[in-house]
Every structure is written in structure tokens, then in C-alpha cells.
């Protein structure tokens, strides 16, 4: 029962982290390597707004999500737009942006800025209490996390299937040329997808981070987790990403329960290598198999 | 240039190749010693400059020169893989790490001398890196970049988790080199040799096949050439260079640890390559020789160094994507003048 509940929590964490990355890549074929950095940035921004500027907590979350979305749009407008179609440069540039954010957060001594180092940055939980479900003790934040994750996935599904913007994003994802002929602006779609993707990274941060403390190092781990989920699920495939998060989430919890927590990262590497050998397009990656990955 | 057409007097920049250049890259027609010298001068300046440098520097900057050599090797291997094979390897530190750990272990556990451990670590490390990257070699573009990016970070996790190879503390008290001259000339000669070997290699048949794998791998496949085996060879060559850097590093500092898998070793070579000019092979070396002292000068600022590389990187990639070397080469080999249209 422990495994079932904590496995679900872990899986939803994976899904939340990966969904933004998949969205951006699925729509505009841009690998946003700054994803993990935006995640951490939102964590610190929220903390800073709440503790330094005494902003009301939900408002602080909204502000930092807005900033993150804006940053996503700026990254595209200022940098990535000049590099479209050059995959090498896209990767390097977005990775560099991510590093600037992550390492910038750790800068010390410039303008009295102390740098976010050490385990002092903790976001408050939304509701601070513990419940007992089927004999397992679980805190409310983890339940909110499961609910939040489901809501995000459902909202995204509704957004891309029933709103005009969402439909245009899907059109661009399926066939850019045809979509452009129908008057959908590819750059606009990319800006929208990057800002939604960045906001989703931030959303994941504010939901997940109250479980532990905020550190800049987490950015790399988040990026790796998002990438692992996307590789295993098939890049750009949503159903694949959700499926892969459950596979990974449970695999990790089960291996932790059986062998101890040191094996977590080994499981991650093992899963990726197995997938790459046996199904290089990922669990549910369909098209593009021949073109891009072989 | 659309902007220049707006001005009243329309001009364009005319570029003419110098006479010694016949019709393609790397093919020259020489008719005098002067022309020969014109062609050789930059190469001689580079080689002599590297060889003389140790005499001009003091102890501290000699150390920096050694580090610059390691970064230059990594940048070379990154450039070779990215520009000639199309494999963007974001995990250059994996090469450094595996080379360093293997030579460190051989030295600490078996007590072998550096002149024995370095060659072994270079070859074994390259085999290990190639095997690790083998499953991802079927991937292209961003897929390869993503997976190669993960390996060094995950290896660190595994080392810490399993507490093998000295865990977080690493292995210290390794043998070092007998004197600083061995330090410097070892790395400098390897940099020069691998630079010119790679330059030769990419102009041979193998280089042609590698470049066509980058441009259109289906066509290469259709010609009956196994792309996987060529990619394996290319990765092996690149990791040989990288692993030598690692093995050398472990004996330079007499210590190996998880920081040898750190991002510094992945990101600085990339910045050096982009700055120097991708695909030139010389460019990355020069980029590394510029960036490493710069980052050394900024050591006091801690993380600012990484931020600075990234800013340089983005600046070059967005505003000067051809890089320093391509720019200089153009200036050196062509006459330029403005001409009315």
C-alpha cells in the first residue's frame, strides 16, 4: 500500500516536471534546456517574494509564474528565434540560458546579493497536516500534488483540444507547413508554447517544492528527470510522457523499497539505456521514427 | 544586405581569394617561398607560440596553461563530434571523468607509474566511454545531446550512492610528474599532435564519410556503408582525446574526485568551440587558450565564471555564429574592398 501511494506521488512528480518540456518540444521542436532552471527560479522567486517582500503566498505564486512565462517568451524572442532549424545551436543556447539562471542564483557578493546557497529555503505547504489513508500516513501536500498533477494534465488536454489557441498549437505540431498556410503564425505558436511550458515548469515547482527545500542543484536533477521521462515516453508524445512517468515513478519507489534509495539513479540510467536499445522511439513515440532517431 | 540597400549610395563588399588559393578549401598553388611562408606562418606561429609559452610564464600561469591544454583537448573532441559527425556531446566531462578515474585507480591500487597509467587509462577510458555511448549512437541531434548530457551527472550519483572509488572524497595522493616541464610539454605536444592528426583525418576518406553521415545519413546507409561502425570509430577517437585529458589531469593534481564530472568540463569546451568557430578544429583550441586564462582571472568570483562562459557562448552563437577562426581565416585569405553597385 505504501508503494502504491508513494509510487503514485512520485509518478505525478515526474509527470508534472516533464509535461512542460514535452509541450514545448511537441509544438515547436525546441528542446528547452532551461526547463530545470526555470523550475528552480520560480521556487526562489516565490520564496523571495514571500519572505523578503512579504507578499501574500498565493499572489507570490501567481507573480512568479507570470515572470517565468515572460522569461520563456523572452528566451524565444531574443535568442531561439534566430537559431530555429539549427538543432545544435538551439540546444547549446538554451542550455546556456539555463546555466546562467542556475549559476546566477548562486552568485555571491554582487550588489549585496547573498546567493541562494544552503538548505535554508523552504516554501510553506499549502495545508500543513497529515492524513491516514488505508493505513498509510501521508501529508496533505502530497495529496494536493496528486490532485494538482491530474488537474494540470486534464487542463492541458482540454486546452489543446477545445480552445482555438490550443488547436493551433496542435496544428503546428502536426504539420508546420500546412498550419502556416492556414494562417497560423509559427513564431507566435512557439512563443505561446514556450511561455506555457515555462509556466508549467514553475507550477511544478510551487506544487513540488514545499515537500523539501529549494536548492539550485535541483535544477539539473529536474532537467534530467524531465529528459528521462521524455526519452522513455517518446519525445513530444503526451500520453507517452504520462505513461513513462508512472513507469519511472513506480520503478524508483519499488527499487527503493527493495534495495534502498541508493539505486534510484541506477534505475533511471538502466531504464533509459534499455529503452534506447529496444525501442529507440520511446514507449509511445510514433511518427518521426525513421526520420529522426535511427 | 537589406540594410545597406536603404542608404543612398549602394555599396557591397567584394571579396577576392588570394592567388595562392586555387579553388577549394585546403588546396593551394604556391609559386614562391614567400607564398609558402604566407601559408605556413599562422601554423608556425601557433606551434611555436605553444612551445615557447612555458618559458614566458611564471609558476601559476604555467599551471593555467596545463589546464588550458586539457580544455583545448576537450574542445577538439567536441568540435570533431559536433561539426564532423553531427553528434552534439554535452557530456564532455564524462571523458575526463572516466580517464581520470581509471588512471587514478591504477595508480592508487596497483601502484603503477604515470607513464604506464596514462596510456592505459586513455585507451580503456575511451573503450568505456564508447561502450556507454553505444546505445545512444543510433540517436541523432537533440536525442543524442540529451542522453550524453545525462551520463556524467548520473555517474556522479552512482559513485556517491554506491560509495565506490572513494565516494565523495575521491582518491588522493596519486603520483605526479617529476617536474613542471614534463607537465607542460606533455599536454602541449598532445594538443598539437591531436590537432593536426584530426585535421588530416577529416580530409581523408573517413572524414568525408563522417561529414556525409552528418548531412544525410540515409544516403550513406544507402551506399552500403555502416553508419553505426563509423560513428563508433568517431566517438572512440573523440573519447581517446578526452580520456587522455582526464588521465593527464589526475596526475597533474595528484587527485581524482567527482568534480571531474562537473559541468565546467562540459560547458567550457563548448563555449571555446563556439567562440573559436565550429568545424575549424584550430578555433576550439584557440578558444580554450583564451577562455581558460579568462576564467582563471575570474576565479575569485566563484560561479560568475560559468555565467560568463554562457554569456560569451550566447553572444557568439547569436551574433557571430561563424566564430573567430572562420572570421580570421576569411580576412587572411581574401582581399576585401568596398565597391559601388
In angstroms, what separates the terminal alpha carbons of chain A? Answer: 41 Å
The major sheet of chain A is characterized as: 2 strands, antiparallel
Determine the CATH topology of chain B. ABC transporter involved in vitamin B12 uptake, BtuC
The radius of gyration computed from the alpha-carbon positions of chain A, rounded to a whole number of angstroms, is 19 Å
Number of strands of chain B: 4
Structure, explained:
The complex is a heterodimer of chains A (294) and B (341). Chain A has twelve helices and two strands. Chain A has 294 residues and is mainly alpha-helical. Chain A has a domain at 2-107 and 136-215. In chain A, helix 1 crosses helix 9 (218-233), helix 2 packs across helix 9 and helix 6 (164-174) crosses helix 8. Chain B is mainly α and 341 residues long. Chain B is built from 14 helices and four strands. Chain B has helices spanning 2-5, 33-56, 59-85, 92-110, 114-133, 141-162, 180-203, 205-215, 217-222, 227-253, 264-276, 282-297, 304-319, 323-333, and strands at 11-17, 171-172, 255-256, 334-340. A two-stranded antiparallel ribbon of chain B has the order 1-4. A two-stranded antiparallel sheet of chain B has the order 2-3. Chain B is globular. The relative contact order of chain B is 0.17. Residues 1-5 of chain B have low confidence and may be disordered.
In short:
The complex is a heterodimer of chains A (294) and B (341). With 294 residues, chain A is mostly helical. Chain A has 12 helices and 2 strands; from the N terminus they run ααααββαααααααα.
Layout of SSEs?
The complex is a heterodimer of chains A (294) and B (341).
Chain A: H1 2-28, H2 35-51, H3 57-79, H4 87-105, E1 130-133, E2 136-139, H5 140-162, H6 164-174, H7 176-181, H8 186-208, H9 218-233, H10 238-259, H11 264-278, H12 289-293
Antiparallel strand pairs in A: 1-2
Chain B: H1 2-5, E1 11-17, H2 33-56, H3 59-85, H4 92-110, H5 114-133, H6 141-162, E2 171-172, H7 180-203, H8 205-215, H9 217-222, H10 227-253, E3 255-256, H11 264-276, H12 282-297, H13 304-319, H14 323-333, E4 334-340
Antiparallel strand pairs in B: 1-4, 2-3
Helix pairs in contact in B: 2-7, 3-7, 3-10, 3-11, 3-12, 4-5, 4-6, 4-10, 4-11, 5-10, 8-10, 11-12, 11-13, 11-14, 12-14
Amino acid at each position: 500500500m505504501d508503494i502504491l501511494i508513494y509510487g503514485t506521488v512520485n509518478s505525478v512528480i515526474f509527470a508534472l516536471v516533464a509535461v512542460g518540456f514535452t509541450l514545448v518540444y511537441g509544438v515547436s521542436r525546441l528542446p528547452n534546456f532551461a526547463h530545470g532552471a526555470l523550475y528552480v527560479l520560480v521556487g526562489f522567486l516565490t520564496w523571495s517574494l514571500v519572505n523578503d517582500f512579504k507578499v501574500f503566498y498565493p499572489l507570490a505564486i501567481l507573480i512568479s509564474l507570470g515572470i517565468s512565462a515572460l522569461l520563456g517568451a523572452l528566451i524565444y524572442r531574443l535568442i531561439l528565434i534566430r537559431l530555429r532549424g539549427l538543432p545544435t545551436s538551439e540546444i547549446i543556447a538554451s542550455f546556456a540560458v539555463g546555466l546562467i539562471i542556475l549559476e546566477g542564483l548562486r552568485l555571491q557578493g554582487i550588489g549585496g546579493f547573498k546567493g541562494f546557497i544552503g538548505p535554508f529555503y523552504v516554501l510553506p505547504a499549502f495545508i500543513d497536516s497529515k492524513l491516514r489513508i488505508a493505513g498509510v500516513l501521508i501529508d496533505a501536500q502530497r495529496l494536493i500534488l496528486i490532485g494538482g498533477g491530474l488537474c494540470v494534465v486534464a487542463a492541458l488536454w482540454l486546452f489543446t483540444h477545445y480552445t482555438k489557441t490550443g488547436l493551433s498549437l496542435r496544428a503546428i505540431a502536426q504539420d508546420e507547413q500546412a498550419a502556416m498556410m492556414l494562417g497560423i503564425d509559427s513564431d507566435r505558436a512557439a512563443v505561446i508554447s514556450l511561455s506555457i511550458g515555462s509556466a508549467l515548469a514553475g507550477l511544478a515547482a510551487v506544487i513540488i517544492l514545499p515537500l523539501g527545500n529549494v536548492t539550485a542543484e535541483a535544477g539539473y536533477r529536474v532537467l534530467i528527470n524531465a529528459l528521462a521521462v521524455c526519452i522513455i515516453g517518446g519525445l513530444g508524445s503526451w500520453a507517452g510522457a504520462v505513461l513513462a512517468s508512472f513507469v519511472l515513478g513506480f520503478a524508483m519507489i519499488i527499487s527503493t523499497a527493495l534495495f534502498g534509495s541508493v539505486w534510484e539513479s541506477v534505475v533511471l540510467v538502466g531504464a533509459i539505456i534499455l529503452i534506447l536499445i529496444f525501442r529507440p522511439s520511446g514507449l509511445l513515440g510514433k511518427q518521426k521514427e525513421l526520420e529522426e532517431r535511427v | 544586405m537589406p540594410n545597406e540597400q536603404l542608404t543612398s549610395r549602394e555599396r557591397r563588399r567584394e571579396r577576392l581569394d588570394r592567388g595562392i588559393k586555387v579553388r577549394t578549401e585546403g588546396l593551394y598553388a604556391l609559386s614562391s617561398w614567400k607564398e609558402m611562408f604566407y601559408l605556413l606562418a599562422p601554423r608556425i606561429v601557433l606551434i611555436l607560440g605553444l612551445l615557447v609559452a612555458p618559458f614566458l610564464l611564471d609558476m601559476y600561469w604555467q599551471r593555467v596553461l596545463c589546464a588550458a591544454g586539457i580544455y583545448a583537448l576537450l574542445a577538439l573532441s567536441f568540435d570533431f563530434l559536433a561539426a564532423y559527425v553531427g553528434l552534439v556531446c554535452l557530456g564532455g566531462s564524462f571523458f575526463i571523468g572516466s580517464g581520470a578515474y581509471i588512471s587514478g585507480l591504477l595508480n592508487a591500487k596497483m601502484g603503477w607509474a604515470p607513464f604506464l597509467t596514462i596510456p592505459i587509462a586513455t585507451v580503456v577510458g575511451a573503450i568505456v566511454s564508447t561502450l556507454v555511448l553505444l546505445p545512444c549512437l543510433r540517436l541523432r541531434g537533440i536525442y543524442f545531446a540529451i542522453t550524453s548530457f545525462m551520463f556524467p551527472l548520473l555517474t556522479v550519483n552512482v559513485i556517491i550512492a554506491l560509495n565506490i572509488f572513494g565516494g565523495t572524497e575521491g582518491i588522493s595522493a596519486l603520483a605526479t610528474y617529476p617536474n613542471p616541464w614534463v607537465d607542460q610539454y606533455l599536454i602541449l605536444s598532445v594538443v598539437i599532435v591531436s590537432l593536426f592528426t584530426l585535421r588530416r583525418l577529416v580530409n581523408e576518406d573517413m572524414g568525408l564519410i563522417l561529414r556525409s553521415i552528418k548531412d544525410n545519413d540515409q544516403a550513406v546507409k544507402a551506399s552500403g556503408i555502416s553508419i553505426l561502425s563509423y560513428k563508433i570509430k568517431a566517438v572512440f577517437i573523440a573519447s581517446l582525446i578526452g580520456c587522455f585529458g582526464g588521465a593527464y589531469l589526475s596526475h597533474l593534481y595528484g587527485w581524482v574526485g567527482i568534480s571531474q564530472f562537473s559541468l565546467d568540463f562540459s560547458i567550457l569546451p563548448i563555449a571555446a568551440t563556439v567562440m573559436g568557430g565550429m568545424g575549424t578544429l584550430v578555433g576550439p583550441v584557440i578558444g580554450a587558450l583564451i577562455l581558460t586564462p579568462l576564467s582563471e582571472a575570474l576565479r575569485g568570483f566563484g560561479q560568475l565564471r560559468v555565467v560568463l562562459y554562457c554569456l560569451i557562448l550566447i553572444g557568439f552563437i547569436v551574433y557571430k555564429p561563424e566564430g573567430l577562426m572562420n572570421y580570421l581565416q576569411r580576412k587572411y585569405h581574401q582581399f576585401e574592398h568596398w565597391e559601388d553597385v
